[in-house]
Amino acid sequence: HPRKHAGLIFHSDRGSQYASEDFRDVLAQCGITASMSRKGNCWDNACSETLFGSLKVERLHGQRFVTRRQAKDEIIAWVLWYNRTRLHSTLAYVSPVRFEQDWHAAQAKQANS
Predict the structure, then answer these.
(1) Residue 14's pLDDT is what?
(2) Can you tell me the mean pLDDT for 56-78?
(3) φ, ψ at 93 (rounded to 5°)
(4) What is the distance, to the nearest Å, from the Cα of residue 113 to the centroid of all Cα atoms in its chain?
(5) Angle between the N-to-C axes of helices 68-84 and 46-55, in degrees from 0 to 180, rounded to the nearest 10
(6) Same-domain status, 68 and 109
(7) 1 vs 30, 46, 49, 57, 91, CA distance in Å?
(8) How many CB atoms lie within 10 A of CB 70?
(9) Are residues 73 and 105 in the same domain?
(10) Cβ-count burial of 28 within 10 angstroms (0-12 exposed, 13-18 middle, 19+ buried)?
(11) For residues 32 and 25, is the Cβ–Cβ distance under 8 A?
């Protein structure tokens, strides 16, 4: 339940589930901005496409979950690992969390200079 003005953006592909009026209404009620790729242009949301592609290949491919809770737990554990531990070549081989920490530290240093 994010705050209404948290500045959240929901990146997705053009899947019917994300384009549905019901889903868009939920986003609007939560104050979340929808970001959907343009037709035929996968680069619009390349970062989210990469994330979901990696999730499917690295964690979900061939898996069968007994319960939704089990599936959610596996996905959450993978996302935490992906953000905290997995090294990303586009981020100079650091994790997204480390990259963001370094960026904030550089901003603070620059502000104090």
Answers:
(1) 76
(2) 94
(3) 60, 45
(4) 33
(5) 120
(6) yes
(7) 7, 26, 24, 29, 30
(8) 12
(9) yes
(10) exposed
(11) no
Question: Which residues does 87 contact at the CB level (< 8 Å), separation at least 6?
Answer: 93, 94, 95
Residue 96 parent element (H or E)? helix 96-112
Return the pLDDT at 1.
64
User: Rounded to an integer, what distance in angstroms lies between the CA atom of residue 96 and that of residue 112?
Assistant: 24
pLDDT tens-digit map of 74-93: 999 999 999 999 999 989 99
Whether the Cβ atoms of residue 84 and residue 95 lie closer than 8 Å to each other: yes
Domain of residue 68 covers: 63-113
End-to-end CA distance of the chain: 38
| d(C-alpha 103, C-alpha 113), whole Å | 15
Amino acid at 28: A
Work out whether the CA dihedral 54, 58, 60, 65 comes out positive or negative: negative
The answer, as to whether pTM is greater than 0.85, is: no
Rg (CA), the chain: 17
Residues 67 and 113 in one domain: yes
Residue 58 lies in a domain: no
